[in-house]
Amino acid sequence: MKEKEFKKRIQKNKYQVFFFCSPVGFPFWFAVHAWVVTNANGIIHRWEISAFSNSGKKHGKLLYRNATLPWNGIELIKIKGMPRFPSIFIDVISGGKNSLAHKMVTFIKNTPKTSPYTNTYHLIPGPTSNTYIQWILNHFPKATIKLPWNAFGKNYRKKGS
């Protein structure tokens, strides 16, 4: 999704949770990296787990808020300034106060304290950014959003959970 299209979808008087993915950089182009973007009445944040980021607000070792622009895909090769894959829009949940979207935004905002997946990253079997996004979705089954088949790590479960 491009910036212009993303900005058209933002409803400044609503709560929204956008789900995106992008092909992963070289040499794992067959896989995707997922992230979530929250909109709380016009306040927008991108949330993701990344073993490779060096920007944005860090929560734990690997959970980042705003490491890059909400609509940016992943770099073709993990070198700063490299071209990026386009992001792939998966779905959005929207609503007003006390809606599913509002509850999800609140939940995501608290994930730095509650997520079991903010300090460890393993490409196979996980946890990855996809594990984090699926963990969020698992808390909201009414959302009915599905990550793509190649979102490796989405089925990872921490021992004892």
Rg (CA only): 15 Å
Mass-distribution shape: globular
Number of helices: 4
Structural class: alpha+beta
| Number of DSSP strand runs | 8
- State the separation between the terminal residues, measured CA to CA: 34 Å
Average pLDDT reading: 89
The stretches of 5 or more residues where confidence is low (pLDDT under 50) are none
Task: List the secondary-structure elements in sequence, H or E.
Answer: HEEEEEEEEHHH
Strand content: 25-35%
Helix content: 10-25%
Task: Please summarize the sheet with the most strands.
Answer: 6 strands, antiparallel
Order of strands in the sheet with the most strands? 4-5-3-2-1-8
Structural notes for this entry:
The protein is α+β, with helices and mostly antiparallel strands and 161 residues long. The chain contains four helices and eight strands. The chain has a six-stranded antiparallel β-sheet with strand order 4-5-3-2-1-8. A two-stranded antiparallel ribbon has the order 6-7. The model has no long low-confidence stretch (mean pLDDT 89).
